[in-house]
Design a protein that fits this description.
Layout lengths: L11 E5 L4 E4 L6 E6 L6 H12 L1 H6 L2 E7 L3 H11 L5 E3 L4 H5 L3 E4 L5 E4 L2 E5 L5 E6 L9 H11 L1
Parallel strand pairs: 3-4, 4-5
Antiparallel strand pairs: 1-2, 1-5, 3-8, 6-7, 8-9
Length: 156
């Protein structure tokens, strides 16, 4: 299944690094940015999420709640979040429900690994509608953050 711009965001519930359930989409007062990433502690994922960490004030200024989502356990994500001083929630999609619902799941990944999240970005407006959708096939690529920022500026 592929999520398209203009469709309703799937309603999901994932676990954060504090072992609490988080319902998505969440930001009734603003926008939500979901960033799916393959693995905690991998080089490209660390670079991407640290970049988001360093520009989080820009997202907050655009009334946007940012979430990082991977199929890692919440325990691995907590260690990753703490080691990189990430200042936004990481959510565990251990059962791969969110990645599958968003069309952001590699059934087959490198080295025979199965069920890994594709690097992806989704902007959801306060009404729960997808306003930006980007699913990358190459795990080494990063989302177009300029296009994401532009979409969020229009929603503010």
């Amino acid at each position: 299944m592929k999520i398209e711009k203009g469709t309703k965001a799937p309603a999901l519930e994932l676990i954060n690094t504090d072992m609490q359930k988080v319902k998505l989409p969440s930001a009734k007062e603003g926008s939500t940015l979901l960033l799916f990433f393959p693995f905690a502690f991998s080089g490209p994922c660390t670079t991407e999420l640290c970049g988001v960490r360093d520009s989080l004030k820009d997202y907050e200024g655009l009334e946007t709640k940012v979430y990082g989502i991977s199929v890692d356990s919440p325990f691995a994500q907590k260690a990753f979040k703490e080691s990189q001083d990430l200042n936004f929630p990481l959510l565990s999609d251990f059962n791969k429900e969110a990645a599958r619902a968003y069309g952001a799941l590699y059934e087959e990944f490198a080295l025979g690994m199965q069920g890994v999240a594709k690097r992806s970005a989704f902007v959801i407006d306060k009404k729960g509608e997808i306003r930006y959708a980007e699913v990358l096939e190459d795990a080494g690529d990063v989302p177009n953050f300029d296009a994401i920022q532009s979409t969020l500026e229009k929603l503010k």
